[in-house]
Amino acid sequence: MRQELPLLIWLVIVWGALWQDFSPGNLLFGALLAVAVARLFYLPPVELSGRFNALRAVPFAVVFLGRVVAASCQVFYLAVAQGPKVTNAVVAVPLRSHSDLMVTATGHVISLIPGSLVVEVDRSTSTLYIHGLNVRNGEDVLKLRKEVRDTEAGLIRIMGTKEELAALKQEVGA
Fold first, then answer.
1. Residue range 21-40, pLDDT digits in tens
2. 101 has which bridge partners?
């Protein structure tokens, strides 16, 4: 119940927002519906690490916004200058973390950057399959993999488990 409580609260808030009515009766009905939805439509539990590093989150957000702007300009240039001649590829990127939260967060961050999109997730191996724009050769494939793994590393530093953080520090230190 402790892990389901944030989901239930969120569902009640969404219910109130959808109806634009936060009266006690409406919220109580929303809570009953939230419990029913949580019981009828089983979702695997999302294990939260219990840590969030705001000092790492702010620079990550700034870098992310910079990458969005730079990628937007690159996509614009490619669309205008090269048009349909742009070479694309789907690249498999194995991630460090096997946490559903980390895999999902990494996939979402990557998909928000123009020119890249997660087309498949292999949950058993924590592998993202990324459609990359303007991937012409092996060097571009390595660059795309590095960007995805750097994004994952940033997210691990922000909200990964202590074990993931220790493994990342050991990998970087090696």
1. 999 999 999 999 999 988 88
2. none
Contact predicate 123/95, CB 8 Å:
no
Domain match, 65 and 115 both: yes
Q: Tokens 């936060």 sit at which residue? A: 22
Q: In the Cβ-directed half-sphere of 46, how many Cα atoms lie within 13 Å?
A: 14
Residue 33: which domain range? Answer: 5-40
The C-alpha atoms of residue 78 and residue 12 are separated, in whole angstroms, by 44
Location of structure tokens 């997730």: 121
Cα 68 to Cα 160: distance, rounded to the nearest angstrom: 23
Residue 46 belongs to some domain of the structure: no
Question: Model's pTM, two decimal places?
Answer: 0.77
Q: What is the per-residue pLDDT across 66-113, written as a single tens digit (0 to 9) for each?
A: 999 999 999 999 999 988 889 999 999 999 999 988 999 999 999 999
- Whether residues 19 and 70 fall in one domain: no
CA–CA dist 127, 152 (Å, integer):
12
Amino acid at 37: V
3-state SS track over 52-111 = CCHHHHHHHHHHHHHHHHHHHHHHHHHHHHCHHHCCEEEEEEECCCCCHHHHHHHHHHHH
